[in-house]
Amino acid sequence: MRASGNKNGALPILAACLLTDEPVTLKNLPRIRDVETMMALVSNLGADVEWTGPNDVRIHAQDISPEVDEALAKRIRASFLLAGPLLARLGRAIVPPPGGDVIGRRRLDPHIHAFAELGGVYEFTDRY
Description:
single chain, about 130 residues, alpha+beta, UDP-n-acetylglucosamine1-carboxyvinyl-transferase, Chain, three-stranded antiparallel β-sheet, 5 helices, 3 strands, globular
């Protein structure tokens, strides 16, 4: 018997696929809405994303954009996980506020402060 994939592990791993321009194959991903949404976010950034098996995905993020789609970001809290890989790879990220379920206080401040400690500069605009 094989353990099923875990959403809380899959979402950051999908975001991390943006760190390379080489193809990445992920196995044993759960086929659930949050994973599908994160795949759509990665695809919208310009990566080629495809299911290659019942729970296997291939991602090739050769040429990507720094701007995360606002409508897709509103669907999932984990959309903010894309900021780090975009900053690391492209030197900039345009990330709207994440959406998703409201199940208690989950702030973005720790992420933003960590980016600042690593030398990142951030700007809040009327839009984001």
